[in-house]
User: Which sequence fits this backbone?
């Protein structure tokens, strides 16, 4: 493996930043939301899908834990949960341990809706990446997993220094 020059690295980082911006715009677009809603028969936005998925994956959750898990502000989460409640996909109840807090639980309808959305997403992705080989897809997934892990890690410049 060869080391790139500082200018090559800067150019690659610029391209990565642009590509990540493009991915963010594509995956967060209303056009994609409408397409997935049409294919799945479920009309909720991508943020609500993420909230529903987390509740299904991790089980009943306090609102504060859910906000942290989906990395959103409590007010924004409240709007998403209210939308999911209105569709009958989640239920909110007082936390038995602390009546001031709410616990969110996925309903059977929410589980069905989430499976339909995931199937529509998978179908669409398969169509878009039809000419990719299994090896190419595996390599992409491996690199994306690494990228996500590295971006979530504390940068070396912000890590506490060892004393002694």
Assistant:
């Amino acid at each position: 493996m060869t080391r790139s020059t500082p200018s090559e690295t800067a150019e690659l980082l610029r391209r990565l930043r642009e590509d990540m911006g493009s991915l963010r715009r594509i995956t967060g677009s209303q056009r994609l939301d409408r397409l997935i809603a049409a294919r799945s028969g479920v009309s909720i936005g991508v943020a609500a899908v993420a909230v529903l998925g987390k509740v299904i994956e991790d089980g009943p959750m306090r609102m504060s834990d859910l906000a942290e898990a989906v990395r959103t502000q409590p007010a924004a989460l409240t709007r998403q949960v209210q939308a999911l409640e209105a569709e009958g996909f989640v239920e909110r109840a007082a936390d038995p341990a602390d009546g001031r807090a709410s616990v969110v639980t996925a309903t059977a309808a929410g589980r069905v809706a989430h499976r339909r959305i995931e199937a529509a997403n998978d179908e669409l992705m398969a169509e878009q990446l039809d000419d990719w080989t299994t090896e190419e897809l595996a390599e992409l997934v491996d690199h994306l997993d690494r990228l996500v892990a590295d971006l979530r890690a504390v940068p070396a410049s912000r890590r506490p220094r060892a004393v002694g």
